[in-house]
Amino acid sequence: MTLKLCIAQLNLVVGDLAGNSQKIIQAAQQAYQDGARLVLTPELSICGYAAEDLFLRAAFIAACDDAVKAVAAALAPLKDLSVVVGHPTGGDSRTKSVAVQQRFNTASVLREGQVVASYAKRQLPNYQVFDERRYFSPGQDVCVFEAGVAGHTVKVGLLICEDAWFAEPARQTRDAGAELLATINASPFHVGKGFEREQIMRERVLECGLPLVYAHLVGGQDEVVFEGHSFILNADGSLAGRAPSFVENGLLALIEEGQTAMNIISSIAPDRTPDEDLWDALVLGVRDYIGKNGFPSVLLGLSGGIDSALVLAIAVDALGKDRVRALMMPSPYTADISWIDAREMAKRLGVRYDELSIVPEFEAFKATLAGEFKGLAEDTTEENIQARIRGTLLMALSNKFGSIVLTTGNKSEMATGYCTLYGDMAGGFAVIKDLAKTTVFRLARWRNAHDPYGTGAEPIPERIITRPPSAELRPDQTDQDSLPPYEVLDAILERYMENDQSIEEIIAAGFERADVERVTRLIKINEYKRRQSPVGIRVTHRSFGKDWRYPITNCFRA
Which of 36, 128, 371, 372 lies at a CB distance of 3.0 to 4.6 Å from 547, suitable for a disulfide? Predict the structure, then answer.
């Protein structure tokens, strides 16, 4: 028994049924030429993941059915080739007032023009960013099919993503005669998730005594990123193959019958550091959001501070210097070093850089409001006016030239409301929305030490990293005037927001009660701002996005 297989680690687009189908066809044809007789594509590969409420539309399900038939027909001439594709199936049963869904997250095996086997996902995740129980019903059956050429076939047991995180589906598939477990997946990235998957799948392998092939999606979709990192495990749990992360790849593997167990031969991409993964996730998230939505270029405000500097470096790595424009908009409180550092960074990366002073507009606003504000001291009102002038200028340029505005706020700011509605929050995509401030500093240093996309070494001037952060909206302002030190703030944020620890638990861990009370109160009262913020890239296991759903009107604190 021998079988060559291919994991088609593809970057797909939600709703682009024709484009996705063509990618699957081309990948299968290439794999066939390379000798593969089994090709695995990612979960819901026909329609892309996740199609959200498109799954509720009968016309969408029908179009997916047609696409599966088209792929099967295109691959029909490839004798003995089995191709696993993911797609939604099912329909509605209707009464006069209610539509009851019977839709399934399905994997189908295409062979010589026919669907020879199908499997419906059994375990439907409904946590973090997942919402599959809204759309799908759980499957009940196992699926084992034969792949290969007569006399050289392997019995393959199909699983879909979450199924493999539980013991029973894999065990029942083994008991039904499977010799190899094949799981197709679309599991969103967060830092460390790839190696966590490898470990969980190793547990399945050791429980079942079967090798496992894990075919994963790659690419950005709205706020989530899929990193690829497909892999193959031998029956003893050892790593037999691994695809590179954050790029499309056709990972080939040869399965041979050994004396005591199958022997799988493939290539193994090297281990990666968390910061390397994090950088590539942000770059891919920007590139795919801009590319898949058809924006020609991006625009951002470059302040001379650390956040906008990091966003600029990410954008250039994602899109190239010619599709990125930076705008410096100094106010009366902008320090000379901010001008100098912003100009220097733009020069290092070679992007278009312009300066538009907001001083005339700021003075005009104050003159218009002088009667209303008579006798009142300046406060955050005047600070927010400056931020909103900048937002207006950026959005005007966006409207005129079609560039999308990248916002530069980080997770620490979004958590505590240290941001201005219709000001620095104005824009279309929030690149570092899920990066804590301490992570921003760390990642800036990482990028200065590495040039992974060849766009320029040490792009961020050292002073931007070392100077105290400031919004520069009043004289001698620093962030720590109104926030705890970021090391403290971010640690509390991680415990409270990401890990659901209570206020008392955080205090018991050694944090000052005043700091904990202050930070958690700010998180609570600024929910209304976050509801109006642009979508941004999710890179932690809990972001202010799909996996954070709290009421704005809310009197409870944990």
Answer: 128
296 SS3 class: coil
Q: What are phi and psi of 475, to 5 degrees?
A: -60, 135
Of 186 and 263, which is predicted with more confidence?
186
On whether the CB atoms of residues 549 and 292 are closer than 8 A, the answer is no
DSSP state of 268: B
Cβ pair 160, 142 in contact under 8 A? no
The three-state secondary structure class of 198 is helix
Give residue-wise pLDDT tens across range 28-56.
999 999 999 999 999 999 999 999 999 99
Collapsing DSSP to helix, strand or coil, 97 comes out as coil
Q: Which residues contact 170 (CB under 8 A, 6 or more apart)?
A: 157, 159, 163, 164, 181, 204, 207, 208, 210
Q: Rounded CA gap, 138 and 119, in Å? A: 11
| 23, 121, 437, 529: the active-site residue | 121
Question: Which one is catalytic: 6, 23, 43, 546?
Answer: 43
Q: Any bridge partners for residue 89, and if so which? A: 104
Question: Burial, 377: exposed, middle or buried (Cβ in 10 Å; 0-12, 13-18, 19+)?
Answer: exposed
Is 512 known to be catalytic? no
Q: How far is CA 48 from CA 43, 51, 195, 220, 374, in A?
A: 8, 7, 24, 11, 57
Catalytic pick among 6, 47, 64, 161? 161
Residue 95 pLDDT exceeds 70: no
Q: In the annotation, is 112 catalytic?
A: no
Rounded distance between C-alpha atoms, residue 336 and residue 319, angstroms: 29
Question: In which residue are the tokens 């999710």 written?
Answer: 538
Q: In the prediction, which pLDDT does 468 show?
A: 79
Which among 334, 289, 332, 333 has a CA at the least distance from the CA of 314?
A: 289
Q: Ramachandran region of residue 55, left (φ > 0), alpha (ψ -120 to 50) or beta? A: alpha
Q: CA torsion sign, 422 to 428 to 434 to 440?
A: negative
Note if 43 is an active site residue.
yes
Residue 168 three-state SS: helix
